[in-house]
Amino acid sequence: xxxxxxxxxxxSARPVVHAVLHRMNESQTHRGPDEGSLHxxxxxxxxxxxxx
Length: 52
What we know:
The chain is an alpha+beta fold. The model has no long low-confidence stretch (mean pLDDT 88). The protein has one domain (3-50). A three-stranded antiparallel beta sheet has the order 1-3-2, with helices on one face. It is built from one helix and three strands.
């Protein structure tokens, strides 16, 4: 199983806090991830876990 997390700010495109998105992504580690990454830009933060 893969996992996806995200934050999307449609109102003001404020910066996404890296630590918050990282914690969201880490909350899925019980699934046994092999890899994961984050992508952050103003107003959008996406995270994923890949399981091989």
